[in-house]
């Protein structure tokens, strides 16, 4: 195992397991020229040459390779005041609402151009977008995030608009949960969360668009023109990802009979894969988050569980030692190929459509059902406990899944 440089550290604690391979990757990236701070979060695990669940601060340079192709990946949380449907009727409606393309009557090129330039708010101006989605898009609070980004770069060619409203593969998902416990009533009330509240979670990113943009840039960018070119492409991908999560959430809200602003009590969106400007030790840096959730002071954030484990809403502490970041999930314990082989031998497809929590799983891809088995992930509770012990954030509410969609 490689030794970490003095400016790098790992948040750990009782029950947290981190592989040597992940620590080796963290040490390698932390040792790159220009890296002045690196933190491995408690969900740290090996990625494709770059550790997932980490944040890095670089002076005078941007390293797009650390972000990878899933630019703008993140999660959107929407709290629902009241659902019209429950039980088997709700499960049927979710199944129907999440099948096929989300926006079949809208021109995909018009969709791409609109969200590339304007983020979620751009959806409202596209012909063929359902009225209920257009109203939600116009009221979209995450649109404010999109507007603080720099102008997007040159519109890429491709049929990426067809992917809006899709979660994609890997650990991405669309989920309907309820608030099981509230740890901080005042903070939860501000977010519209009370015991029993329905919550929509949409975890996805920029889909094929981000992967296409990643090929445009070199591994390390140092000149202002290079950096600004990357930031412009990243801005477009983040706007696309924000819009994608809005459409995903809308699909579940439609199933709930709650796709109206007056039926929602709160919402926020977090970007897990991005480069943003920040200050570390009084100096300007480029903060790279790779599978890490932002957690500025009093910022709502969420640590995602697997389809068989709770998720946890936290308030960030803005701690500089943690690069104002927290874990975005529990972290993988098994790689996808190993998990698929192991759980295919132990389980049937039918058995994996229910979890030990009693929740339902809607997934048409047998390989994904096995590869994303809950036991392929580490326990989320030690991860959250380690974040609290490090002062990175504090718990607000615990969410338990009822229906998880992986399509």
Task: Give a quick precis of the structure.
The protein is an alpha+beta fold and 407 residues long.
Description:
By secondary structure, the chain is an alpha+beta fold. The protein has one domain: tRNA-splicing ligase RtcB (Alpha-Beta Complex), CATH 3.90.1860. The protein contains 11 helices and 15 strands. The chain has helices at 20-30, 87-97, 108-118, 131-138, 143-147, 185-190, 207-214, 224-256, 336-344, 366-371, 380-389; strands at 8-10, 35-45, 52-58, 74-80, 173-182, 198-204, 264-271, 273-280, 283-290, 292-294, 300-303, 311-316, 325-327, 360-363, 393-406. Strands 4, 5, 6, 7, 11, 12, 14 and 15 form an 8-stranded mixed beta sheet that branches. It has a 5-stranded mixed beta sheet with strand order 1-2-3-9-8, sandwiched between helices. The protein has a two-stranded antiparallel ribbon with strand order 10-13. It is globular and about 55 Å long.
Which CATH class applies here? Alpha Beta
Mean pLDDT: 93
Distance between the termini: 38 Å
Globally, the shape reads globular
CATH architecture descriptor:
Alpha-Beta Complex
Q: What structural class do helix, strand and pairing data support? A: alpha+beta
Quickly count the domains. Answer: 1
Low-confidence stretches: none
| CATH third-tier fold name | tRNA-splicing ligase RtcB
Q: Which SSEs are present, and which pair or pack?
A:
Layout lengths: L7 E3 L9 H11 L4 E11 L6 E7 L15 E7 L6 H11 L10 H11 L12 H8 L4 H5 L25 E10 L2 H6 L7 E7 L2 H8 L9 H33 L7 E8 L1 E8 L2 E8 L1 E3 L5 E4 L7 E6 L8 E3 L8 H9 L15 E4 L2 H6 L8 H10 L3 E14 L1
Parallel strand pairs: 1-2, 14-15
Antiparallel strand pairs: 2-3, 3-9, 4-6, 4-7, 5-6, 5-15, 8-9, 10-13, 11-12, 12-15
Helix pairs in contact: 2-8, 3-8, 4-8, 7-8
């Amino acid at each position: 195992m490689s030794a970490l440089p003095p400016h790098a550290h790992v948040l750990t604690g009782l029950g947290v397991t981190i592989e040597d391979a992940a620590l080796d990757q963290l040490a390698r990236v932390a040792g790159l020229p220009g890296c002045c701070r690196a933190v491995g979060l408690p969900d740290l695990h090996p990625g494709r040459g770059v550790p997932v669940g980490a944040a890095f601060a670089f002076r005078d340079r941007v390293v797009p390779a650390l972000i990878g192709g899933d630019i703008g990946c993140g999660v959107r949380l929407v709290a629902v005041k009241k659902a019209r449907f429950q039980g088997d009727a709700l499960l049927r409606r979710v199944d129907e609402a999440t099948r096929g393309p989300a926006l079949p009557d809208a021109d995909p090129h018009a969709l791409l151009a609109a969200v590339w330039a304007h983020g979620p708010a751009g959806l409202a101006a596209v012909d063929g977008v359902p009225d209920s989605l257009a109203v939600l898009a116009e009221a979209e609070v995450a649109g404010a995030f999109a507007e603080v980004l720099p102008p997007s770069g040159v519109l890429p060619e491709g049929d990426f608009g067809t992917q809006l409203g899709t979660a994609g593969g890997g650990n991405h998902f669309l989920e309907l949960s309820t608030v099981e416990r509230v740890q901080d009533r005042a903070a939860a009330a501000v977010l519209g969360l009370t015991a029993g509240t329905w919550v929509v979670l949409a975890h996805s990113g920029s889909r094929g668009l981000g992967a296409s943009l990643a090929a445009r840039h070199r591994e390390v960018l140092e000149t202002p023109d290079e950096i600004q070119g990357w930031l412009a492409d990243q801005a477009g991908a983040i706007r696309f990802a924000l819009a994608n999560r809005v459409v995903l959430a809308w699909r579940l809200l439609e199933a709930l009979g709650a796709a109206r602003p007056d039926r929602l009590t709160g919402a926020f969106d977090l970007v897990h894969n991005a480069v943003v400007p920040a200050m570390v030790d009084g100096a300007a840096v480029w903060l790279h988050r790779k599978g890490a959730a932002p957690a500025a002071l009093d910022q709502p954030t969420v640590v995602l569980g697997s389809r068989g484990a709770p998720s946890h809403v936290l308030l960030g502490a803005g701690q500089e030692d943690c690069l104002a970041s927290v874990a975005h999930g529990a972290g993988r314990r098994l790689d996808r190929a190993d998990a698929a082989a192991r759980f295919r031998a132990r389980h049937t497809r039918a058995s994996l459509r229910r979890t030990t929590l009693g929740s339902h799983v809607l997934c048409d891809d047998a390989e994904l059902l096995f590869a994303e088995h809950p036991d392929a992930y580490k326990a989320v509770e030690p991860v959250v406990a380690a974040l609290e012990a490090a002062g990175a954030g504090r718990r607000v509410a615990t969410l338990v899944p009822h229906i998880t969609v992986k399509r």
